[in-house]
Amino acid sequence: xxRSSPVILAATAASRASARDGARATRRVVITTAPLALVLxxxxxxxxxxxxxxxxxxxxxxxxxxxPSRRANAYAPTRANGSGPSSPFVVSRSPPEPVMFPRPKIExxxxxxxxxxxxxxxxxxxxLPMDVFQATSWKFRASEWEPYKYLYEPxxxxxxxxxxxxxxxxxxxxxxxxxxxxxxxxTSVFEERVGAEGASRIVRRDASLRDNDLLPEAIAERxxxxxxERLVNGFDRGEDFDVAYFPGAPKPVSTDARGAERxxxxxxxxxxxxxxxxENGYALRxxxxxxxxxxxxxxxxxxxxxxxxxPATLWGARELINRGIVTTxxxxxxxxxxxxxESGISSAYTERVTDTEIxxxxxxxx
Length: 366
Description:
By secondary structure, this protein is α+β, with helices and mostly antiparallel strands. The chain has one domain. Helix content is 35%, strand content 15%. It contains 9 helices and 9 strands. The protein has a 5-stranded mixed β-sheet, with helices on one face. Strand 8 and strand 9 form a beta hairpin. Helix 3 runs parallel beside helix 5 and helix 3 runs antiparallel to helix 6. It starts with 7 loop residues before the first strand and ends with a strand.
């Protein structure tokens, strides 16, 4: 099998836009990989363990549906607790098997939207110098690439082809694992090199995020908000591209809706948002269903189950669990949570990962 050309990941940073308030300027990220150099080159300013597939896998309601956290919305999933070899979140002794069924091609603009939103979220949280992040992720990707390709032989995976679910699965794993491995040793003040000439500057993380344990949730929140805003209002990839629009993305629930009606409308919106992900190739199928055993139409809360069959992040999600990495690449969960937050609804969710799907259970409340 012919060797693909290597991905070159580099970044330049814009100079400070305002001396008045010292706010950080939006960076431009350049991820060049023929033929995607122009796709990711410009950035517009932002305005595993296997478990069965049956419903019987659900141990009890308390395990599946989390109590809403003290935060209004929990963007990162809680991984369901379990014991014994069948527990879905016990670290495996061996890597997960490759995904053995075909998944759809991802719409390119949608794939870029997810990756860029994730990158920008990491940047905004000031976890580590972005020049270090880029260099580290490039080295990590290079070390993981050959073993990953071997999993899928004789299939050929083109390096850099992010519309291919096999490569998208890999590159989102690399991005998420890189930041997850960096968080424990992260410092809140560091030197960062920016610009073509590598000028250095001192970066100080926001005081509210000085505790490294808060970073996974903060990254998930910023990522989800960026994705949702771009799905609703359009994704501007820069002057070389038309703005990408994603028909069907729901706006927040109307302020006219009150009480249980607001929750009912929110569930419909969750279903519409999931369909946008399906139509853009993120998964084979996504079902969004009220759990009628746990909630009734007049209740002030809803229990909603979201089953994502054949997601483009399936292998990566299992590999992150296998390696004990706490950050996740749960783009759909992040985005659904952002939609609920914009709709004035508190939420939290758990996730379970199998060989074929990611199963999320949401608790919604007013």
